[in-house]
Amino acid sequence: MADALYYRDYLQLDKILNAQHLISADYGEPAHDELLFIITHQAYELWFKQVLAEVDSVRQLLTQRPVPEKDVATIVFRLGRVNRILDLLVSQFGILETMTALDFMRFRQFLFPASGFQSLQFRVLQAKMGLQDALRHTIKREFFYAALDERDRAIIDQVLQEPSLFRLVERWLEAMPFMEAENYTFWEEYRKVIESIYARDRELILQEPTLTEEEKQERLRQVELNRQSFEALFDEALYAELQKQGVFSFSLRAFRAALFIALYRDYPLMQLPYRLLDGLAEFDELMGLWRYRHARMAARMIGSRIGTGGSSGVEYLMNAAVRHKVFEDITNLSSFLIPPQQLPPLPEDIARQLHFVYEVNETQRN
Ligand code: HEM
Description:
Elements: H1 7-10, H2 13-16, H3 23-26, H4 34-62, H5 69-96, H6 101-105, H7 120-129, H8 131-134, H9 141-145, H10 150-161, H11 165-174, E1 180-181, E2 184-185, H12 186-207, H13 213-231, H14 236-244, H15 252-263, H16 268-302, H17 314-323, H18 328-332, H19 348-353, H20 362-365
Antiparallel strand pairs: 1-2
Helix pairs in contact: 4-5, 4-7, 4-11, 5-16, 7-10, 11-15, 12-13, 16-17
Bound molecules: protoporphyrin IX containing FE.
């Protein structure tokens, strides 16, 4: 029989709890706050590991064609877990902020050129989410490659060969049925509603007695500008152009499918896909919050000094917080929603497919 399991051995505490070495002690001046600094980073890295495990499992489930409905539920649960971990990681900076800038100065000079910039797990997470895809027009891979050693660069190269979460979600959306049927195309029905909304807006402006002719023309111009932003959804060439400019990331078909899910989310079969999209948007949002919170904490600690990793410091971090988005298309769906009361009704056969069907037999009925 195996030996009785012992808590310390199971959790390998001898390794973990002996993995905090103060570099300030090596220079003969042990800094009280360095232990907190190390433990905070290690705690982050442990949670990054868990987030990566969840993201890997989600990517694995999304490689199936088609993705079974029960697995969509599992994906939703796992994204939920990722998001709760990120909540914790955002708030965890508050603990490190109990160290003051002056306390940090006791050991900061010993850290160069090491930096969170070299966090392999953070880079892998970005790559697995699909940030490289989303940023292909704005950031050069060499920028952060230069900070990594050969072993870590090879790992990133390997990850970049794999399909990212973004690409897998896009493919899953593209495969969604329900948008077309005989004599029915979702986006054409949607377009009719959009046109009628704008026609009504124009009419209301023209009939408004309190507006001068000049004010009317100005409002009509605004309505037209707004209408044009919808135009891309019906015009493949225009959509492709905007995609090149980074306005949209998903393919047009994937974007339309996401819009369909958002509009018809009350149908039972659309609820899980809707929650999946919502979970992804929250994931992106929380990563942004993490970056913002980290940047503000760094500002308190180092002001406008450059980072130990050699970047411009807080300026770089703030920029990344704003620009490093993967699932912005999902967040932006809100711009394309229409009031539920004006939603075009679905053809009967599609509406039927989107309901769960329960077979009740005679014994159950009595
Ligand atoms: C005193 C506390 C901290 C300061 C002053 C600080 C500062 C910085 C700065 C200035 C950068 C930009 C790169 C550079 O030039 O070094 C950076 C990057 C980074 N730091 Fe921190 N950091 C702190 C704590 C943390 C903690 C606790 C984590 C948790 C893992 C962390 C993770 C990262 C990551 C992942 C990056 C890369 C971000 C990106 O490229 O988008 N940092 N940090």
